[in-house]
Amino acid sequence: MSDFFSVRVADTGRLPLFAFFVAFIITFVATRVNVRLIRANVSWWFRNVKAGDLHIHHVVFGVVLMLVGGVMGFAVPEDYQGFVVTAAVIFGVGSALVLDEFALILHLSDVYWTEKGRASVDAVFVAIAVTGLLLLGVRPVGFEGLRPDQDGSPPLPGAVYVASLIVNLALAVITVFKGKIWTGLAGLFLPLLLVIGAIRVARPGSPWARWQYAPGSRKARSAAWHEERFRRPLIRVKIWIQEFIAGRHDLIPPELLHRRPSTRRRVTRDRPARRTPFNPARRRTTGRERALRSAVRGRSPRRGTRTRKPRPQDDDD
Fold first, then answer.
1. How far is CA 65 from CA 55, 103, 196, in A?
2. Which residue has the higher pLDDT, 146 or 20?
């Protein structure tokens, strides 16, 4: 294990990237454990940070730490390896705090425990996957052509390199427009996935499907069938993994669950009481209407008296 670390990480100059990777994962796991304990009202050392009535999200601390780590990484010379690794650790901690609330930045509202909050977990998974591949030495499409051979000559001619780079980027854009985000990101490291993602049918609701597939067409039906048959099981597995790591995002927060609705309506000068809408069936009747009703029922207009009914006449009269 030590030989693998020294050969693949230390000797290749990826020690700061390794420090960033480890700090990012540890901070994300610790943050999720902390917020889940706070949500469950468990006694814990850490609590929500508030300044009066203002709740300060941990994305604020993440931005500050990213700024400190980034400036420190640029300011310290590369000869001071310890300071460079420290800057990478600080930057990794700040990045984890920021991406953990990526959905808040995206929607500009507190959607941490809602369905939209799962975008934060997706962003963290993407960051971990890309950093892990870079740590293993896998380079994105196009960077392989920039590495010179042993004799110092470029591995690919300039025209071939530019053409392959344009083709791969075009396939990546098509794959992303077809709604296959993970395939497009993984295809930057494995170009074969870009070819498969660009050829296969797009996902329903993706920009490519809206532009190219007419409603009710064969491709639209095929896209819906593939989504229901293959994509839905994978999405359920991904949601299960997300909920296992980060907690459920569709539960009611405890501060809303224990809030009791007020039974009495508060009337103030700024907010007058709401009047009930006009109901014709409940309006007050006039005296003329009461007299007509009494006459129909056999009563006199005056209360308590009855009108005489006409006596039936004999047939002989």
1. 19, 19, 40
2. 20
**Contact residues for 32 (Cβ-Cβ < 8 A; gap 6+):** 100, 245, 246, 247
- Phi, psi of 55, rounded to the nearest 5 degrees: -90, 120
Cα separation of the two ends of the chain: 128
CA dihedral 151, 154, 157, 160 (to 10 degrees): 140
Structure tokens at 234: 């994978």
Q: Is the dihedral of CA 288, 293, 296, 299 positive or negative?
A: negative
Q: Tell me the pLDDT band of 267, cut-offs 50, 70 and 90.
A: very low
**175 alpha-carbon distance from chain centroid:** 21
Is residue 165 within 8 A of residue 142, CB to CB? The reply is yes
pTM for the full predicted model = 0.66
Count Cβ neighbours within 10 Å for each residue of 56-84 and write b for 16 or more, e otherwise.
ebbbeebeebbeebeebbeeeeeeeeeeb
- For residue 58, the SS3 value is helix
